[in-house]
Structure formats: structure tokens, C-alpha cells
């Protein structure tokens, strides 16, 4: 159950080329606490003090170092042989994620800089290489404890506290190379339209001015059967084509919509020709699906859907934010589905693209949520906005993503209830997100104190179903800001009001077993019976309120000191998964 061009461990599965090289594994490594490396020209002559297993950060056991103390500057070095056969090609060096500022040198020359711990980036390193020889790649990663940089759940103090965990510093996702032509497809934005039965491809092509007549062809197939073949002449870098998918190979049209029940995916091959010679070939896929809102409901493919989500922070014991393997990502998705959930709220983390690939393939809905800053400042506004827009563009094509969540619980916008600047910031991010993607709902402040928002989402860790029904049985008072949605926060910021949006409870539960090693929400329980009684009572109470159209349970796994997962941090179930499934599906 994969797409036609699936390659195990390929780091960018929606834009696949066959000629690539994985650079993960052993790199030379060194701390630089005094920030002397650049002045001493470590990028020209590097002497490591450690060996690190990339892409795991030095804080993790999987890295081979396992030191949790914060170091603001760290360096990496690796020699990579570039064959003579690469002559005439461009060599692109890719980083899927480096936290937080990355500076990259090749053979002592600075090739580029990137800021942002969660977005992927790349550099054309061709001018700096020597073909047929080993080439030195050196990376300096700069991190900080600043609360103006998007950091999500990463602590900014010496020790863990509340729900904040060991920081992530440096390379934490795959590093890789690919060999391409100067004339190549840089990107394609794929937009499905099920009502018109078309898909739109927005192309960006590099090298239009390199000479030659460029033609770009798209070949769409479904389960190996041809659907459509279209081409156009590329006489400028950016062009758009719409493809009509009405075709006998489709069979009945609705059978080929993407949904959790039947996650149908179309394969597409893009071929770029120069004077009839193939210069680039990229494999991708897409899902025909639509997310919309109507009459206080969220619709999937024009049909109301009740979302049963689980909050997932994506941490592992030995590797923290970095998935230990592709199989580990698949295991998490399979367990989520096994428990009767149809979606996941990926909390305070931009997850590995392979996770989104398997959600696309297996039919798991995803809410994509930005890592928060924790201080409102011009620097925070700049850093947040730039990185969030990068992420929306990079994740746009995944059919599994059905909601964007740029803000959560007023983190980084702590005075939003009354502060007009913070309110306008969220409005700006909402509209900027819509300018790139007008098709998905955007939630401006998940949990409470909403400004403009397509869904009204509320967080409440009330312990019992009876308590929940008492608070939300007459929900008009909550959505009308007459009373708080929990014990201390209002649904809307001042100056904003409920306008008929769908209502969801997007954090609740957080039940922990009795332990002195961590915490959960409310009283800890002593037995499976007590756990299931409370879990079922809360879930049933939410379902009993007709105006609520979905929920998100906290949470999938334990995370360090937070022990309120349905699974332990090493993915062992605390209660039989079938019991959770029965309650979710009841």
C-alpha cells in the first residue's frame, strides 16, 4: 500500500528523483561554547572532538553523545565523494531540518545560511565542489534560549518544567544530496477540485533562460492505469495547467476521492524536455479531496465528518523529536488507527515529511501546528511569519493535512485577550495563510481567546463527564463569552464574537496512572477500570453535545515528565487498544 514511486527512507516523498545520496550516519562533531569556530576557521580545517550519528541531536542517546546540557554553537563535518560522472549536473545539498540557524560551508567556502528549526532548505553547491574527489561539508548550527524564536515544547531553562522538554539543537532530520540538470522542475503546487473534477498544477521551473525549447509533461495514473497526459511549453519560470480527470479509467468518480475510509491517491510523473531530450523526471502523487465548512460543520468531500483526533507530540525516548526510523512513524499511525481515531493533531512540531506521506497513504487526517514562540516582540513576529509561510508551502500538497494551526493557547501572544497588536498579528497570519492556501480551515489560537478563526476550538481538562455536561450542556454561554470555556479562559478575545463556526474540543483528558515520576491532568488513577470509566465518561459527554463536531484527546504517548499518554514513551499500551477503540466508535 504505497505510491508507485515510493522509496524507503526517501526524505521528500512527494517530490521524488531517483538520483540521490543519503548523508545520514557518522559525522565529526564539536561543541563551540565560546563561539570561536568561525574566527579560527573551523570551516577550513575541522578537528572534531566527538562522532555523532546524524540526524540525531547531541542531546539524544541515539546520537552517540547523549548530553542534555545546552550548547549554543555546535559544528558538524563530513567528507563526501562526488563522482566525475556528476560533471554537467547541478548538485543540491538538502537539509530537512536544522535547529535553529544553519551556516554551511563546502571545501571552506560559505554556500548559504538558513534560519528556522522546522522548515526544510537546500543549497546548490556545484560551484564549490571538486569532481572525482572527496569534498568537505561543514555545518555550524546556532541555537539559543530566546523565547522570540519558534521553539514549541523545547525548554529554555536548565531543567525540564511543566510540559517543556529537553531542547533540540542542530541537525535533527535527514541530510542528503541529489544530482539534477540546470533545467529542472523546482516545485509543483498541486490543488484538487472535486466539484469541477480537475486538478491544478502550478509549476516553477529553473533554467528557462538556459536555452533550448522546454516542454513539461504530466502523466497521471490511478492504480497503474493511465488517466491523463498533458503537456505545455515552458516559456517562463512559472506556469499553470489544469487537468480534467474525467476518464473511463477513473470508474465511478466518488470512489477515487481521498478519505480516511478510502485514501485513494493518484500517481503523477512530471517530465521536463529540452529540445525533446529528457532533462528532469520527478514523481509525485495527490489526493482528490475537499475540506469545507457549512452550517457549523466541517465537511470532507461535501459530507459532514466527525473528527476523532489524538494529540501527538512526536517524541521518542532515545531520539526525542527525531523519528528513530520510518518504521516507527508507521507504527504510531497504525496504533492511532487501531484505537479508532481518524486523525491526529501534531502538537507544537512540524513532523518529518515521511510521517505525512504515510498519513496520506493510510488515510489519517492531520492538523499541522506551528511551534510557538513564548514572547511577543518584533523579532518573534519576523521569525514566526517567515518560517510559518515556508512550512505551509512545503506541506501544501499533502491531502492528509486538513487544518492549519499557527497558534495555540495564547503562547507567544499572552495578552491577546485585549492587546490589539497581538490580535492583529494573528489576523495577519490567518490572512497570509489563506493567501497561500484558501482551501483549508485556519485556527488562529487553538484552545481559547480566538480572533478570526474558521473553527472554534476549546481546551478543557475537566475530570468527569458530568462536569463536562454541566459546563457545556448550555454551550451558548461559552461561545457567547458570557462564561469561560474552562475555569479561566474565554472562547474569544475582546472585540471578536462567535459567527457560527464549527465547535470542537481539541484538548481534554490527559489521564495519568498513579506515579511519582511525572504528571497528568487532574487526579491520577489506580487501575485500568478507573482509567476507562473516566475516559469513556468524558468521551461520551463530548459526543452528547450536538453542536460539538469533534474532539482531540490528550495524548498519544508519554513525553518525558508528562505521563498522560495512552501509550508509554516506548509505545507500550497502558490499556487494551481495543477498549479505546470501542469507546471512540460507540
From TrEMBL:
Superkingdom: Bacteria
The keyword Hydrolase appears for this protein: yes
InterPro entries: Beta-gal/glucu_dom_sf, Galactose-bd-like_sf, GH, GH2_Domain-Containing, Glyco_hydro_2_cat, Glyco_hydro_2_N, Ig-like_fold, Ig-like_GH2
An annotated Gene Ontology molecular function: hydrolase activity, hydrolyzing O-glycosyl compounds
GO biological process, one term: carbohydrate metabolic process
Glycoside hydrolase family 2 immunoglobulin-like beta-sandwich domain ranges (all copies): 184-289
Residues of the Glycosyl hydrolases family 2 sugar binding domain: 22-141
Pfam name, any one: Glyco_hydro_2
Domain Glycoside hydrolase family 2 catalytic positions: 293-582
Keywords: Glycosidase, Hydrolase
Family from the record: Belongs to the glycosyl hydrolase 2 family.
Name of the protein described by the UniProt record: Glycoside hydrolase family 2
Species, as recorded: Cohnella candidum
Organism lineage: Bacteria, Bacillati, Bacillota, Bacilli, Bacillales
